[in-house]
Design a protein that fits this description.
Alpha-Beta Plaits; globular; 4-stranded antiparallel beta sheet; 3 helices; alpha+beta
């Protein structure tokens, strides 16, 4: 079953956030288990962003989360956020192309 993780966070420095993200992407090239990631900005809430990460399964997501590179990445990102991020862990029940 496909799995999606939503990560909502607030930051005043999205450019620094994206620099850390780019470093992590380079370090984990060829080993990541995520299939797709989309970064969004909330139009109604200043400095609020949601990262949508798609995985082939929950197990693949947990494998990714347990990597040392991901722990280091998360610690660096936490320093750039105004508050701890909120995670939503979602099993995909339906997926429609419209």
């Amino acid at each position: 079953m496909k799995f999606v993780q939503l990560i909502e966070f607030k930051t005043g420095d999205i450019d620094a956030f994206n620099s850390v993200l780019d470093e992590w992407l380079a370090k984990t090239a060829g080993t990541r288990t995520a299939e797709k990631a989309t970064q969004t900005r909330d139009r109604d809430s200043d400095r609020t962003y949601v990262h949508i990460v798609e995985f082939p399964s929950y197990d693949a997501a947990m494998e990714n989360s347990n990597r040392p590179e991901t722990a280091e990445f998360s610690a660096q990102l936490a320093k750039l956020c105004d508050a701890p991020p909120t995670f939503r862990n979602l099993d995909v029940l339906r997926d429609e192309d419209m």
